[in-house]
Structure formats: structure tokens, C-alpha cells
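Hi L.,

You mentioned the student needs an example of a multi-chain input paired with its predicted structure. This one should do, with 336 residues in total across all chains.
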Amino acid sequence: MQQQSPFIRLSLEDSSGSAAGVNAWVRPDSTVAEAESGAATLTSVVGPLSDAVIISRHIVYRGAEDPRPAAPGLAPSSGAGVFVFTCEAPDSYAIVVVPGIRADLLGPAGPGAGILIDLAAPDVVAFADLLISGIYCNPFGVQLLTLDSAFYQWRP
Amino acid sequence: MTKLSFPTDYNDRTCYVVAINASLIPLVAGALRFFEKRGTWDSDLDYEQGYAAFAQIQGCMMKCCIDDLIASNDRLYRLMSGALYGTEYSVVSTDPFLVIEPPIGDYHSLYIENEESILGKMENVKQLLQNALNGTVTPLYTDIPGIREQLANMIAALEATGTLDDEMLAQLTEIALLVA
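Structure written out for the whole complex:
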């Protein structure tokens, strides 16, 4: 995976509600703290230039396969494996979606045949173990605790 | 597009069981992704509550098949039927479906199928008391006469022979009244 230059994107919204953005690339050797500081400064100097209002900013670090490899299987990306995790706070959850889930990971028997994901499959275990033991959290900053449910969904 | 506010009475309401054909689960659950997006909700708090609620729904969707619920209901029925009436069930087939006989009917007759069942043992005790006390001939007990009649006979015989003092006669009469 080749790293590409990170960039800052400011999203602006005009008086009609239409949105557009400003992209500014950051030197690849910049630290996260420097990029965040740069984003804050950029926000303060772009704002006065426009009649639109800045409503959000993103700092994007990108890596890309080059050349792009072929998909190893035929499953469509819309056929997703959806993993629902409980998190460390009460009544807190996280949903992690894996597009193009492999058909052989879906349970073959019982009422959930073809839908439930086999939680004992080694690749599933490795995935779940990583997410609950690493740096990962839900959108609200709460760390993942256990894999609660995993099944196939159609998410075009 | 109108943004959604998370229902304020969410924690006060109970849940409904909604039957969804298993083939449609991927489509129905996938359609809920709309509610996982910040843009759907009016505020950050609405978003956090909505995200958690819809994640919880998706977690529940594949945990309780209606067939499993009905099967567990049937297991409870067979447990009670076996314990109360002594009905014996057996698995006659597992492929392609689990078949257990006898089938569960709309109602259970009062017939006790096994004396070792709860009602069977209660019936046994009832018949024992009827037979022992009153000398009633029952399907399980046929001894005659009963204790009550034997006591009456004893009292009558002792009174006739005059070999019983008044105190013992009073005690025997008292016992006879107790089992009456």
C-alpha cells in the first residue's frame, strides 16, 4: 500500500445550503499534530475569504494500491458482512461493515443459513480480536469490547 | 431533508417482535444503514442515541428466530405434559425437520398416562386414602374394610364384651372421629 500525501478538506456551506470544499495538501513528513494545527490555521484564514461558512474539516491520510490488484472472489461489494460490537460504555455499540463478504464465511445450516457469519472462522476471529484489542472505537470514542452479532446485509 | 430527533420516550417503551422472513433480513437490515449516518439526525446527541439504538436492533435481528421461539415454547409444553401427565415424547425424525411424537394438540385430556407423573402420584395418594380410610375399592387399592369401619367394629366389639375401660373407649372414639 503506497502512502499518498495527506490533505486537509474544509467543507463550506452557502446561504442556500449547498456545500463545497477547500482541499490543501500537507507535506508527507508532517506529524499528526502539525496537520491538525495546520487545519485549524487554514480554517481561520479561509473563513474570511468566503461568503460561505465552514461547517466541518477533515484531515485525510491516504494509502492506495498501485497497481490496483484484481479482486480474489466474485462476491459483490454490496453484499456486506456487518459486525455489531458492544463497547465499553453501557448501551454503546459499534457497527463495522466489510463489503463483499466471502460466501464461505456464512453459516451453512439452521435458521440463519446463508446469513449468519461463522464467528468461529479463523479469519473472523482474527478480525474481531484485532478490533476489540486495538486502537479501535465507535464514532463516539468508546472502545470496542465484544463482538455481539455478525451477519450478511445488502448495502448498495 | 428533514433531520430526525431521537424519540424522547425511547427508554419508556417496550419492544415488539417483528417477523421477517430470513431471506429478507439482509435487505431490511441493510436499509437501516441510513440511521447510522450523522446527517440523518438533528444533533450530535440524537446521532449518538440513534446510532446505538439501530446498532442494537441489528444485533438483535439474528439472535431470535421465530422458529426457535416456537420450538422453545413446544419444549416447555412437553416438559409440563411429561411432568404432569407422564406423556412420553420421542424424536422420530431429524431430517429435514425435527419431528417429535406425539404431536402437540389444541388441548390435553385429563387422562394420566404414567403413575410416576405428578398428577399420577397425587391420584395414587388420593386412591390410597379413599381405600384406607373408607374401604372404597379403587383401581389401585382394593383392601376392605377401611380403617374407619375397622375402628367402628373394634369399638362395638369391645363395648359388647365390656373389656375396655371408659378412658380407652373415649380415646378410640376420638380416633374414629378424626378419620371420619
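You could point out the following to them. The radius of gyration of chain B is 34 Å. The helical segments of chain B are 25-31, 44-61, 66-85, 118-134, 147-161, 166-178.

Best wishes,
N.
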